[in-house]
Amino acid sequence: MRLAYIAFWLVLMAYVGLLIRLQFPPTIEPRPIIDTSERNCQRLRHQMSEAEVEAVIGGPAGDYRTRSDISYVPPRNLISGGGISLPQPGRVTKEWRTDEAMVIVEFEPGFGATSIRQRRGIGGPSWSDILRDRMRDLALVGPNGP
Question: What rounded mean pLDDT belongs to the chain?
C-alpha cells in the first residue's frame, strides 16, 4: 500500500511539473537569416558601410554554422583584385560564417569596405545526412532486396 501511495504522488508531481512547463515555454530568440551565397555577395561593393553590408548579408558578423565540422577552402576574392590581404593598422575585419560559406569583409575607418572575400564551406556528412541517405537506400532497395 505504501508503494502505491508513493507512486501516486510521484506521478501527480510529474504531471503538475509538466503542466507548469507547458505554461511557461522557454523563450528562444530568432536567429537572423544570413545569406552568404555568392549571388547575394555579388551585391556587396567597395565603400559600403558595415551597416550596409549587414543589411545585404542579413545580420551582424558572427558564426551562424549549425554544424561544428565545417571548414573553409581558401578565400575567393569577390571584389578586390586578388592577392593576400595583410592586416593594416586601423582596418577592422568582420566574418560571417555559415555552413555554406564564409564572407570576410575588411573595413577602413572613413572609407568603408576595402576588401570582400568569400570561402566555400566544406565538411563531412552529418549524422542526419548519413541517416537520410541510409533511409533512402532502404526505400529504393526495400527490405527483401531490389
Answer: 81
Separation between Cα atoms, residue 48 and residue 55, nearest integer Å: 10
pLDDT at 144: 59
Name the residue ranges covered by the structural domains of the chain.
38-127
* Other C-beta atoms lying within 10 Å of the C-beta of residue 45: 14
Residue indicated by cell numbers 571584389: 79
What is 40-105 written as a DSSP string? HHTT--TT--HHHHHHHHTS-SEE--S-TT-EEPSPEESSS-SS-----TT-EEEEEE-SSEEEEE
Residue 95 is predicted with a pLDDT of 93
Residue 60's contacts (CB-CB under 8 Å, 6 or more residues apart) are 32, 54
